């Protein structure tokens, strides 16, 4: 019985035959990179089909996430195509003329007025998204990385290596390519998970996916390039750790909390990242934070039995591991010694001022209040019982409340960690 059918890259045209409905043994049908158009047949096989099986094509539509819906009958579509056959070239020429004139006007305006700089960036990003739908962007990325030469590697990300690529328009992007290992099926699953989840979400503190390629030879995802690198590497660098002052660190904690709260409470179904660490929090040159690496992420139904199971395990990671990240921000290093009790013994308690990172300048009174709030929240996220931990929405709401003398009655210099030693992840 035929289970896998790969018809990609064959320049097929016309519509997909309805006879595929009778091929009940099929589990995978890849018809990407052809010239097909019209509705995708409604079959049992295609109920849970991936959009990547059908993209890019000339004009396929159907009830599949990522494809446009079909709103008219085949006859109407045929009549419409005949009309568009002579209208389209004229409209295309006019549209291209308008676009060129618009871009020229923006460039001229940028040279005269500095505040318009953001408009050109937005226009460039818009065009880059369009380019990722076709062969031009694929060939551009292969050229920019010299067919993924190791000299362009800037890091690793779970299932693959991350490359830095400069496109022909000058834009820098990060490209994570799936590498072949003994855990090939698991890595493939992580690649598809990240590709599908990032194609559904848009949040300013989550790294942006510009496009992807899913092909038997090349599988990669293209992201915005975040210049500074990971929070982990920043904290290891003496000079960068000094620049990452207390105000910036407080903002990083707030930003990460907001991103995780969005994933848990504003996405439907909720998304669980499962790998929130300082390695997967990226910083730009102004130390703005972005959550990355969704290879281990899962979507989960709120009424599923898996929800309560995840909440009580290490894999749930938030708010538990969020608490670890907060302490790492405060201490300037991973808090493993603090969490296993190596820094305290018996009835002794350690003052917060003795364990905070000494590289930034001393915190102001306002920053001390914010740090006291952060530390208390971190330990509440690390409570041994998952049921006593706050949700990430509650954690984020706690952080955005302005600290005051009434909310932090204990002076920062006298705040101890004795109460937070018995914690669990």
Describe the secondary-structure layout:
Elements: E1 4-6, E2 13-14, E3 28-30, E4 35-39, E5 59-61, H1 74-112, H2 117-131, H3 135-144, E6 153-157, E7 160-166, E8 172-178, H4 184-198, E9 209-214, E10 219-224, E11 229-230, H5 231-236, H6 238-243, H7 246-266, E12 271-272, E13 281-283, E14 289-291, E15 298-299, H8 305-311, H9 320-331, H10 336-339, H11 365-381, H12 392-400
Parallel strand pairs: 1-3, 2-4, 4-5
Antiparallel strand pairs: 6-7, 7-8, 8-10, 9-10, 11-13, 12-15, 13-14
EC number: 2.7.11.1
GO molecular function, one term: protein serine/threonine kinase activity
Keywords: ATP-binding, Glycoprotein, Kinase, Leucine-rich repeat, Membrane, Nucleotide-binding, Phosphoprotein, Receptor, Repeat, Serine/threonine-protein kinase, Signal, Transferase, Transmembrane, Transmembrane helix
Structure, explained:
The chain is built from twelve helices and 15 strands. The protein has 425 residues and is α+β, with helices and mostly antiparallel strands. It has three domains: 58 residues, no CATH class; 112 residues, Phosphorylase Kinase, domain 1 (2-Layer Sandwich), CATH 3.30.200.20; 191 residues, Orthogonal Bundle (Transferase(Phosphotransferase), domain 1). It has a five-stranded antiparallel beta sheet. Strands 2-4-5 form a three-stranded parallel beta sheet, with no helix packed on it. The chain is globular, with a radius of gyration of 26 Å. The two termini are 48 Å apart. Its EC number is 2.7.11.1. Keywords: ATP-binding, Glycoprotein, Kinase, Leucine-rich repeat, Membrane, Nucleotide-binding, Phosphoprotein, Receptor, Repeat, Serine/threonine-protein kinase, Signal, Transferase, Transmembrane, Transmembrane helix. Its main location: membrane. It catalyses: L-seryl-[protein] + ATP = O-phospho-L-seryl-[protein] + ADP + H(+); L-threonyl-[protein] + ATP = O-phospho-L-threonyl-[protein] + ADP + H(+).
